[in-house]
Write the structure tokens for this entry.
Amino acid sequence: MAAQLFKTGSFIAKSEFARDDRGSVAVIFGFMLLAFLMVAGVAIDYGRLYHTKSRLVSAADAAALAGGSALLDGRLSDAEIETLAKKYFQKNLEDGGNLFGTVTSPNVTINRATGEVHVDTTAIVPMSITKLAGFNDVTVPVESDTGYDLRDIELGIALDVTGSMRGSKIADLKAAAKDLIDTLMPDGAHQNRVRIGLAPYAASVNAGSYASVVTGHSGRGHTCVHERSGTQKFTDAAPTGINKLGRERNMSCPSAQVLPLSENKTLLKNQIDRLSASGNTAGHLGAAWAWYLVSPVWDSIWPAANKPVAYNDGKTMKAVILMTDGIFNEEYIIGNGRSARQARSVCTEMKAKGVTVYSIAFQAPGSAQSLLQDCSSGSSYYYAASNGGELRQAFQKIAKTLNNLRLTN
């Protein structure tokens, strides 16, 4: 009986101990649940902060880039640029849906001397579960800056003035080219030196007063020029001796003449206004002459004010724009290959010298588009335009790329 009671007592004692153990586990579980809820709350609130900051960064970047583009364009006042930047900021925020906090109006600071636009703003994000830990509101600051690389620029533009460019096309080209000049050469003082040369081409290139020296012919004569033969036929070798360019009296010649590098906006735009369209498409000559305009190897040809600087001088961007609406179909030295083949060779050689090649296909057929893609310095340097508006956009994008507008932080 005693043994039975002992056993019963032992059973009772063990049962009570078990109940005490379950109570301890319940307390521990309660603490763990609270800790889990806090961790979950932190995760939720962190997500709210991350979402808000991402939205602010995107909006501030959009505002800074819009302001930087307007500053680069040069036609808006500081107050107008500030208004524009704030509109881009607000539009970007609205397009992203609801925010978790209250956003302050951005501050926009413009520095014309350095070509920079600074945007800063903040958001106040109320916390949820982490309020239990004493965190009520968290301030999220965001800053964004844009600037452009103040390198000097030497740009040669090969302009298609062939017969297929008659009518609205030539008018669209004139407007687009003058827009580019306005962007690269804003009115008023600017820190970098920008010079632009023009190489209109059709069935040949009109070298004007430079025809005699580059072809070795004396006298005024015919000013149309074509390609050269020999081992240097696709290079920028100086046009002397066996490397002189060709000239024939029966060549079809565009009325617009080559214009060497100039920083005179009025001269450049007047020259563009005088463009007229006629003739076939010797596009390889346009590509070559756009290169000659920026080549220091040709410095003996150009007047002192128009001489290009040396390659890779550390502060100058050398580039050409090659634009056409058609197939390259006119060549003179048969042994050099067809015009398109020669153009590819010229582009390869100039890119090897560090010249950046932009190309624009304006309502051009597939074979011409393929050629221009090959000629360009990469896919981001090639543009296809199906109408006048897109042509102007292409020229504007090139201008902004040349000025290297970018986010700086």
